[in-house]
Specification:
By secondary structure, this protein is mainly α. The chain contains 7 helices and no strands. It has helices spanning about 25-40, 40-55, 60-70, 75-80, 90-105, 110-135, 145-165. The radius of gyration is 18 Å and the shape is elongated.
């Protein structure tokens, strides 16, 4: 594999707020990761509500549940591209696209539209993770090794808080 010419290396061109040399950049990327990863966690809570609404069986519901994950299969290709282009807008737009796509699942009148929305959300997730994770892995001198676990922990917290956000608590 040929090295990327210096003129094409733009991974560090991200906005000042998301540069890894600033604590706010790591905090911003981690906060975006927390919010972004909470949306896909809604699917497991929404499926029992969608089954009777759409008149689908458990097999179709299972296929729908896996649709998001199948769409994220392009993430390695997107990550390769993210190393070569300016991805600052991906970090901003991808959580919004994921949130809207998953947020309107309950309005979808047919299983095909639910699948399409989950595919859009999965593709959006594939664009967010490499774009937001890359700047976090390039911190300044003494912070090396600390920001990536914070970024990953925020994603895990998002996946953990997602179901509770949409679940109906009778208490």
């Amino acid at each position: 594999m040929r090295p990327v010419p210096a003129t094409r290396r733009v991974a560090n061109v991200c906005s000042p707020a998301l540069r890894p040399d600033r604590a706010t950049g790591v905090l911003s990327a981690s906060a975006a990761h927390l919010v972004h990863d909470s949306y896909p966690a809604f699917v497991g809570v929404l499926l029992p509500l969608l089954i009777p609404k759409l008149g689908i069986g458990l097999a179709v519901a299972g296929i729908l549940a896996s649709t998001f994950r199948w769409a994220t299969a392009i993430q390695p290709v997107v990550g390769y591209a993210a190393d070569r282009v300016d991805t600052r807008y991906w970090i901003i737009l991808a959580p919004a696209v994921t949130g809207v796509a998953i947020g309107i699942l309950g309005l979808a009148p047919a299983p095909g539209l639910v699948a399409a929305l989950l595919i859009v959300a999965g593709l959006s997730s594939s664009f967010f993770h490499p774009a937001a994770g890359a700047p976090v892995t390039r911190p300044p001198g003494t912070e090396w090794g600390r920001p990536p676990p914070r970024f990953l922990a925020a994603g895990g917290a998002g996946r953990g808080r997602g179901p509770g956000t949409v679940a109906d608590d009778p208490a």
